[in-house]
Amino acid sequence: MTEAPTPFTPYLSQLSHSFEQLHTAKEDAFWCSYMGLDADVEGARKTLQEREIAVQRWIQSPERLAEVRGKLALAEAARTDPQRAVDRASQMELIALQGWVAALEANSIETAEARSQAEHIVELESELAKARGGMKLGYQGPDGFVPASSVKLGVMLRSEPREELRKAAFHGLRSIETHVLDHGFLELVKQRNRLGRMLGGEDYYDATVRRVEGLTKVQIFEWLDQLEELTRGAAQRGIEQLRQRGDTGLPWNLPYEISGDVTTAEDPYFPFSQALGRWGRSFAALGVDYNGAELVLDLIDRPGKYENGFMHGPVPAWRDSGRYRPARIQFTANAIPGMIGSGRRATETLFHEGGHAAHFANIDMPAPCFAQEFAPTSVAFAEVQSMFFDSLVSDADWQTRYAHTAAGQPMPFDLMQRAIQAKQPYEAWRIRSMLTVPYVERALYEMSDSELTPENVLAVMRQIEEKLTLAPGGGPRPVLSIPHLLAGESSAYYHGYVLAEMGVVQTREFFQQRDGRLVDNPAIGPDLKKVYWTPGNSRRFGEFIETLTGEPFSPEPLGRQVNRTVETTLAEAERSIEHLQDVPVFDGEVDLKANLRVMHGTAIVAGGEGKPFAETSRQFAAWIDERIAENG
Ligand SMILES: [Zn+2]
């Protein structure tokens, strides 16, 4: 149904379409450059840079903000004035104007000086990305240097049985730090701080979170400090237990000592080829669909491709004068078929990015500003959607139902028991390991220009890593090797994952208490759609969590979860498996209401317009098995 036009209709339509056009052009260039689709790498990067500047100019324009504020004031005045009934905006148009004011306020830069500073920063980021992309990355093997992506080095830390290779992989990751410190990272930090102060923040971190989350740095770190306290004792007990077992607790051994062994044992229950099918069936059983969206997936690692999974939306979902326009959403992962642990990682990535995609595909608001993934869209809230779904893959009831070998053998309980025994003592440690990133970033942006030397920065990073991860000499994941800190759109951002962990556990607790289960619970999709997804960024993080769960947002549910003993955790897992007999198996046709396509670079691997999901997942499975045969 379309709405009758008002005096505001042409203006709003022009506003929405001009933004959407720039946004789509930029996101398509982003995909092209980050997926390495163009042989002309330099040219692709340059196109992206130009289009990014064009979008930024549009969304940061103070003139546009003044204009939209003026329209909103007119619409609000007309709303109550009987003399001006013909000048009224529709209810949806009023909401659209409010959304545009919020979006422009979160992005607009008032002074010309700050605007040119922002553009200068985009150039510095692009130079740094180029230096990082061109880096000779890998590890020293017994027969010399072996090139490897940061993803591969990370996987080696978790699952490589030979200590000397893990140590080599760890030093490979650390080499990223010295490389970026030598190639302009600190200059970027200084210039970002200058911009942050121009925008009225204490520093870049503070200015960014005010705009993105509508929160101050102080508020965020109050929650993080509480969480740090809630996890301290349990993390120390975990490390103590490790030492008693005779493990070293050294940074290149910790991830392996904690998880390596179980990863290998679990591997047969996560055949890579089944990952896509499990995602589709599980999401369908939860009542999740994609509202007619086009989904493009590029899941396998290859040289020249960006080294971190992400989702982005070149076409935001929105309602154009009452007519719904579905989203186009693309997501990527860096799975390496055949490598131990890669099938599980691929499954988790599909659940994670598929959760993001479900969120953005189900936004139903009267302008595209509500459904784009940048400010004022909360990063932390977006991560609740993705991490809620990837958390299911670790649940005993989900594993019993879905994690079967290629021959159909379900994962036995004693393996889950081993996983819980191996992981639960270190859950608090894992949260603290994540906390290293926001604490390091906060420290970086709080250093003065003269303090920002490579020596100081390395010393501060090691100190924070050591305090939080309790690993001598620094944490297993060198903070500066994490790509988020370098790129503009993901810097001062990582606390979002931690706030999201808190939001996920609070959301899980809510469904668990209300419905008794998460796995194949068909109420979850519709409830998330109604409360978390439909409103887009028209609400703030805490408001969403409280509306669904009925409780204010708090670090305590997560604190409780990571402090559970192994015995309690095992008892809960057993109960959830017993409960499975009352949970109907979803054996209907999987229809995600999506036009799904799996790509490998420019080649189509599976799916396409009108293809049933079952066929797409069969094509995907066959393609993966071929890759494994080639690699093996
Ligand atoms: Zn995510």
Can you describe this structure?
Among the domains are: about 120 residues, no CATH class; about 300 residues, Neurolysin, domain 3, CATH 1.10.1370.40. It is about 60% helix and about 10% strand. It contains 24 helices and nine strands. Strands 4-7-3-8-9 form a five-stranded mixed β-sheet. A hairpin with a 2-residue loop joins β1 and β2. The longest helix has 28 residues. The N and C termini lie far apart (about 55 Å). The structure holds zinc ion. Zinc ion binds next to α13 and α14. The site of zinc ion has 4 residues, from α13 and α14. Its cofactor is Zn(2+). It comes from Lignipirellula cremea. This is Peptidase family M3. Pfam families: Peptidase_M3.
